[in-house]
Amino acid sequence: MRKKILFAIGRLSVGGAEKLLVNQLPVVDKEKLDPYLLTLFPEKKSATFEEKVVLAGHQWKKLDFRSLFDLISWMKLFRFFRKEKFDAVITALFSANLIVRIAAIFTGVPVIIIHEHNIYEDKHRWQIWMDWLLSKWTDKIITDSDAAKFFTAKQEKIPLEKFLTMYAPSFVDKAKGKDPGLIRRDLGLPKDAKIILTISRLVPEKGHKYLIEAANLVLDKFPNVYFLIVGWGPLEGSLKSQVLSLKLEDRVLFPGLFLGKSDIENILPVADIFVDPSTRTDMPFAIMEALSFGKPVVSTAIGDIPIFVKNQETGFAVPPANSAELADKILVLLRDGAAREKMGKTGAEMVKPYTMENYEKTFEKLIIDLSNAN
């Protein structure tokens, strides 16, 4: 008999946790598991994966929590749980980890699994306390890196045996990518120009301002290069202002989000070098995707990134918030095409085992093992 499982998240806004969930649902073994999706909050008008889920036809329950104290939504949630009688619940991000976990505990769901997708240094004391309390009824806490595992265990005083590290897979389908020449033409990029790419939300911890400073240094010594900052977020205006103040608007471009018209499998082949200048992270999904496409990576040496971004093997790992070092390593790769190619091939080989299918097999085994143990 198939086990009925529920994947729950706040909403389907574009982000790493949401992307993992949306890409995991289609590869669930439907002979073993009967997957449902639950979102708690109304979708925002900004970029979202909602259309992708609708087109895939997943079983999807949408609630409209307006706040943590929305009693009507709480009643609907408990009614939903009592009706469906799930065998396992898997949640991601704090709101779902809190709200859905409470419902799962009180309705007797046998297996409860949550995701901690980052190193959350800014959690409030009450959030840490709630995570600690609810962990007593949680079977497993999945992290994207050992760095996040050790940090969260210490922060929330939860035993390490509750945790499991599962590195995020690459989601991209290389077969669906457009001709890179067409994308260059769409973006107005010269055929012979070198392209530096970064993909992430435009928020402070992603370190875009240091990449822009580095771009200014790089362009002084290597003029035939363009920087693409792909993403969206609250810092878009200030980052564009920084670019204007440095008179880099012709070389540092903000193409927006690459979703329907141009997915990541379209934009990654255009790049010569992938850069992640984050100042706080554990293991960005985008780095795994860039490596899978055979791109050398220049990133900050934080979290578990140095496990995959190895100096002079798959790219370079530099200190965070260091524009000069970032620029220096970008220049090394710009000037050495053979090194770019060699590092790209090494990186692609390194991440070959990290597929969505392998990730899901590990996940399914975890659910079944925990179900049998309970």
Automatic annotation (TrEMBL):
Domain Glycosyl transferase family: 183-349
Gene Ontology molecular function: glycosyltransferase activity
Superkingdom per UniProt: Bacteria
Domain annotation Glycosyltransferase subfamily 4-like N-terminal: ranges: 14-154
Gene3D superfamilies in alphabetical order: Glycogen Phosphorylase B
Protein name: Glycosyl transferase family 1 domain-containing protein
